[in-house]
Amino acid sequence: MTRSDLPESKTAAAAIFEAQRLAFAPLAFQVARVLRDTGVLAALCDRQAGMDLVELERQTGLSRYALRVLTEGGLATGLLRQKGNKLVLSKTGFFVENDPMTRANMDFVGDVCFQGSFHLDEAIRAGKPAGLKVFGDWPTIYEGLAELPPQAKKSWFAFDHFYSDTAFPEVLPLVFARKPKALFDIGGNTGRFSEAAVAFDPDVTVTILDLEGQLQVALANAARRGLADRIKGHAINLLDPQATIPKGADAIWMSQFLCCFAEDEVVAILRRAKAAMGPDARLFILDTYWDRQKHDVAKYCLQMSSLYFTVMANGNSRMYHSQDILDCVKTAGLSVTRQTDHLGVSHTLFECRRG
Ligand SMILES: C[S@@+](CC[C@H](N)C(=O)[O-])C[C@H]1O[C@@H](n2cnc3c(N)ncnc32)[C@H](O)[C@@H]1O
What we know:
Blueprint: H1 12-23, H2 25-37, H3 40-45, H4 53-60, H5 64-77, E1 80-83, E2 86-89, H6 91-98, H7 100-113, H8 120-126, H9 141-144, H10 150-175, E3 182-186, H11 192-200, E4 205-210, H12 212-224, E5 231-235, E6 251-255, H13 263-276, E7 282-288, H14 296-313, H15 322-331, E8 334-343, E9 347-354
Parallel strand pairs: 3-4, 3-6, 4-5, 6-7
Antiparallel strand pairs: 1-2, 7-9, 8-9
Helix pairs in contact: 2-5, 7-10, 7-14, 10-11, 13-15
C-alpha cells in the first residue's frame, strides 16, 4: 500500500502531524501536567491579558530555563498562545486547569498508569497486569487497592468516585422503585453507594461484598458515620470459583464492577448472582459502555481507560461495548427488564431478573 491508497480525506500533512502528536504524546502529557502542577496555568488563568516570562518567573518561582521549555511545550501542545510578548491561556489550557473530569483523568493516568504503561507489550502478550509491579506484587490491583502508594491511591479513588458519584443520585429512585429491604452492594469499594442507599431509604439494610482489604475500609467508613447497624459486610473474592453469593437480597447492585473482569469471569459472577436471587429479586448493573455515549469525548475516554485494565488492573478486562455485557447476562440465564442510558456523566443501568 502506498500513501495515496489510504482511504481518508485527511491531508498527508495533517496525518503526519497527528502521528507526531502520538510520537511525542508521553512528553506532551508531562508538559501539560507540570504546567498545571507548577502553577503556570493557574497564573495565566487569573490574567486574561497574559503574562511575559518575567512576570511568570516572579509568580511561579521557576527559572527562566524551566519556563522557556515548559511554555514552548505549552505552545506546541496548544495549551498556550502567544500574544505579542505575552503568553495567554488557550481554551484547552483552561480546561486542563479547571475541568474536574480532565483533572481526574490526568491524575489517574499520571499517578496510576503512566509508569506501569511501559509494560503494555508484556501485559498484552501475557494477559497479566504487567505494569502493576511498579506498585506491588498482587495478582490484580484490587487486592492492593488499600496499600497503593498515597498519591496513586488518591488519584485512583478520585477517578473512580468522579464517575460513579455523578450517577448515584439519578440511579437511586430506579433501584428503590420496588422498595428492596435488603440490598447487596457487590464491589462496594469505599461504601459510597451503600451510604447513599441507606440515606435514601430509611428501611433498607445493605451488605457490602468486596475483597477483605477494601471491605474493612468500607466498614470503617460506615462505622465512622454511625451507620454500622445498617451497613454490614461480607468478604468475598469472586475470582474464586468456590465463592458463593449469599441468598436473601431483594436487590443486588454492581456498579463499575463487571468491567473489572474478563467475559468468562463476568458470566461466572452473574451465574452466582442468579443462584442467590429469589424470583422477585432484581440485579442492577451500572457501567459505562463506549457505544452508549452521546459525545465522542466520552467514547475516547472509555476506550483509552481500557488500557488501564490491561496493564495495571488485571490484564484481561476492559470498558465494554454494551452488547458484550448483554450477551454475558443472557448466557448467565438472566434477562434485562429495563435499560436506562445517560445517567450521571456517562452510565447505563441494566435492571435484570432471573430467567
Ligand atoms: C472499580 S471499583 C467500583 C467501586 C464502586 N462500586 C463504584 O461504583 O465506585 C471495583 C470494586 O470491585 C472490587 N473487586 C475487584 N475484584 C474483586 C473480586 N475478585 N472479588 C470481589 N470484589 C472485587 C474492588 O475491590 C473494588 O471495590
